[in-house]
Model the fold of this input.
Amino acid sequence: MKFLKALLSTAAASAALLAGLPASAQAPAPLRIGSTLALTGPLATTALTHKLVGEIYVEQLNAKGGLLGRKVEWIVKDDQSKPELARTLYEQLVTSDKVDLLMGPYATGAILSAMGVAQRYNKVLVHHTFGIPSLSKYDMAFPAWSLGSDPGTTVPNSVFDALAASPKPPKTVAFVTSKFPSIHFMSLGAREVAKKRGLQEVLFLEWDFGNRDFGPIAARVKDAKPDLVWIGDIGLEGNMLLDAMKKIDYVPPLHFHTYPAPGPMTKSPDGKNALSLTIFEEHAPFTANPVAAEFVKLFNERATKANLPDTSVEVQAAASYSAWQILEAGVRGANSFDDKAIAAFLRKNRVDTIHGRLRFDGPGNYGDDLMKIKQVQNGKWVVVHPAQFAPGGAKLQVN
Done:
């Protein structure tokens, strides 16, 4: 009995001592970072990749002590692929959840909504996959999507430069595109670039985002007999169009996709030789970066356990990881969680990411165009342009 009383007395004394400690001696509250992702809806296939990347990055941060001595807690909400819902949820994150920092969502529409909220509350917004830089009017928004400030011109020029080196450069092109904002923007820019480069446009068709009936579009493309089909798609739209083409016994000689769902495109036989944009693929020279190599290993393992359609690190996963790298660099560089201090540091300094060294001193805080052209070969994405990023001298292939 005496032992029990002594034990209780010691415990009470310890509790009193802890209660009397100054706040600085107690464990600081977690740093709360809030964002939304399209966990359901038409964009979910790709957004689930972004969710897994964020989870990996937060775990890595906390394993090395968090940020400036505070553990990191990531609060992510489902915007259901709806920009208007993303706007509401970011309002909640700032006002109700009282998060310390923000991370951008996936896709241009949702990012633009989040940007409006961030501007209203003077919050930094690091974002990825924002395809219309001219719409980025907020000076505390920073992109991980390194396509330069004029992708309506530079992206199609990169595509046509790559195609010029193919065994059979295209002379005719069909443009079929979603009306999804950034996709539509780049498709319209590609039409102008193609015209200036002397390619003959044989078809132009549009569809509403969310469309699932691609039979009529496939038939029109087949009748046009283009050398190249420029497909302005996002998510599974490209797969659905290729499937519709297959049903009428048509295979395009060359087909470029703007933002395809990475796994489904490589896993489908119809995706053979599909072309797309990238900033990073899971091969040399990208994997020579030790941080990138470690991330690739972790992502492969976690994506396999999560049964994701694609377990490899490609453009979407890389953009997401780079966005977290930018936010971490801003906090550490400013040595502060103050949004204005973070923004000031990022505007003045370059940041090392797994896809390159980024600067944010151009229009809309965009820096260099680091986009490359990749192709599905043997069931995997490989860079085919520029040549110095092509593994083993990989060359562009034609169906």
